[in-house]
Amino acid sequence: MKKLIIAIVCVLSSIFATAQQQEIINCFKSNNVECLSAYLSDNVDLTVGNTEGVYSKAQSKVILQKFFSENNVKDFKILHQTGNDSAKNVIAQMQTASKSYRIYLLTKTVNSKPIIQKIRIEND
């Protein structure tokens, strides 16, 4: 019985983590930096165009807000995902009105929640 309960908890945790991972993708699709900031690490390795470095959560939010205000997302497609329950990598293509970008995300799971450690937004 104990093993069954542990198995059920593990499956539910995995489903919950996948749903939260999808929420991060939905934040990108909807240009929603407030939503995205809920998943940012205290320090984020962030690359957006010529801006590159490790920034605090607040600084990252400002940089991302500037990017999204200048680039309205029209389409967002996941090209590749790898990882396990503790860390995931996502490579995606984001289309705006005038440009196409390649997005790289690294998330690590902390207390059953995916936390964004790294974001790279580069011209495709």
Folded structure, characterized:
The protein is an alpha+beta fold and 124 residues long. The chain has three helices and six strands. The relative contact order is 0.18. Mean pLDDT is 85; it is low at 4-17.
Rg, rounded, reads 15 Å
* Sheet with most strands: 6 strands, mixed
Give the topology string: H per helix, E per strand.
Answer: HHEEHEEEE
Please tally the helical runs, counting DSSP H or I stretches of 4 or more residues. Answer: 3
Strand order of the largest sheet: 2-1-6-5-4-3
From the spread of the alpha carbons, the general shape counts as globular
Low-confidence stretches: 4-17
Mean pLDDT: 85
Structural class: alpha+beta
Which range does the strand content fall in?
A: over 45%
Question: What is the helix content?
Answer: 25-40%
Distance between the termini: 52 Å
What's the arrangement of secondary structure elements?
Layout: H1 2-29, H2 33-37, E1 40-48, E2 51-56, H3 57-70, E3 73-83, E4 87-96, E5 100-110, E6 113-123
Parallel strand pairs: 1-6
Antiparallel strand pairs: 1-2, 3-4, 4-5, 5-6
